[in-house]
Amino acid sequence: MTEQIKPQPGIMEIKLYQGGASQVEGVSEAVKLSSNENPYGAGEGAREAYQRAVHDLHRYPPTDHLSLRGALGAQYRLDPDQIICGVGSDEILTLLAQAYAGPGDEIIYTEHGFSMYPIIANMVGATPVKVPERERVIDVDAILGACTDATRLVYIANPANPTGTMIGGNEVARLASGLPSRCLLVLDGAYAEYVEGHDGGARLVASRDNVVMTRTFSKIYGLGGLRIGWGYGPKDIIDVLNRVRQPFNLSNTQLAVAEAAVKDQAHVEKSRVSNTRLRAWLAEALAEHGVPSDTSCANFILARFASRDEAEAADAYLKSRGLIVRQTGGYGLPHCLRITVGDESACRRVAHAIGQFKGGVA
Ligand code: PMP
């Protein structure tokens, strides 16, 4: 009987998402640097909104997200009618695949691209197509060369996770204009706010009909636990995504806290400035210990070790010191560790521990 009951094609191809651990057994004060979270947490305005939201627990939330879209539009200078809000940017990335791809279609992502992209492709029965990068940087020509008549979506993150590298606006525009006519370019801007002056691709969305940008409250806004993201795209595409979206996808709490967070740009600014300073400091400190990294544009660095064995030993050593970082073997980077830029004390602890590890001091 159960042999007859089979999941849709692609579902069993899905490799379960590997989330970052938050505890180390036997260590009481572990510092979690494995999920690119904001070390300062959420801003004051967002915390207050969270407390106030208790009064609305019995009410269904609005389905149109008008107030949050208005706040996002005002802050990012975008038309609120071209914005859609979801349960993390993961939901927007998923809605795009649900609406525009299915069995027989292809979804392109890049060699070290974010692990949700192939998961989402398999979820909708499409074929995930992995395209090589050039030295951990997205290669536009390789993507264009991999496109076929069946390509429906291309996912790229800029800055990218877990490499932290970025490609320039001209390259992104060249990619958008070179894609086949039935293919959408999805610009994942989860880390866009960490790059001063970077619009995440918003201007490109405005000038083309085949580009959608996704953004998140999980990173610089410090709200990963609440699950809120958004997308910006051509009106007809946003209309399509709204048809696929659950009407009550976001709770009153999510909506109220996200709106307060957008209006608290001082917290965003403080977080960006701190990240920029500590990221440079950490990268330099690790390089001095013989652990190089590419210049990162995000809130983490990808530390490169001599081998997979050394990276695994470094990971175990850091763990024993209460420092939780992310192994990147699943991203095709087994000799690397991705380390979130924490606060000053966390960065100093990481640099010190890696210095001891490299110096052979146990
Ligand atoms: N895109 C990228 C590149 C990410 O790194 C992440 C989170 N790790 C996401 C999207 C998803 O973020 P969320 O669903 O929390 O908005």
Automatic annotation (TrEMBL):
Transmembrane segments: none annotated. Its EC number is 2.6.1.9. GO terms for biological process: L-histidine biosynthetic process. Its cofactor is pyridoxal 5'-phosphate. It catalyses: L-histidinol phosphate + 2-oxoglutarate = 3-(imidazol-4-yl)-2-oxopropyl phosphate + L-glutamate. Keywords: Amino-acid biosynthesis, Aminotransferase, Histidine biosynthesis, Pyridoxal phosphate, Transferase. InterPro entries: Aminotransferase_I/II_large, HisP_aminotrans, HistidinolP_aminotransfase, PyrdxlP-dep_Trfase, PyrdxlP-dep_Trfase_major, PyrdxlP-dep_Trfase_small. One of its GO terms (molecular function) is histidinol-phosphate transaminase activity. SUPFAM superfamilies: PLP-dependent transferases. Residues 30-354 form the Aminotransferase class I/classII large domain. The modification N6-(pyridoxal phosphate)lysine is found at K219. Pfam families: Aminotran_1_2 (PF00155). Pathway: Amino-acid biosynthesis; L-histidine biosynthesis; L-histidine from 5-phospho-alpha-D-ribose 1-diphosphate: step 7/9. It comes from the Bacteria. HAMAP family: HisC_aminotrans_2 (MF_01023). Belongs to the class-II pyridoxal-phosphate-dependent aminotransferase family. Histidinol-phosphate aminotransferase subfamily. This is Histidinol-phosphate aminotransferase. It comes from Pseudooceanicola batsensis (strain ATCC BAA-863 / DSM 15984 / KCTC 12145 / HTCC2597) (Oceanicola batsensis). The lineage of its organism: Bacteria, Pseudomonadati, Pseudomonadota, Alphaproteobacteria, Rhodobacterales. The gene is hisC.
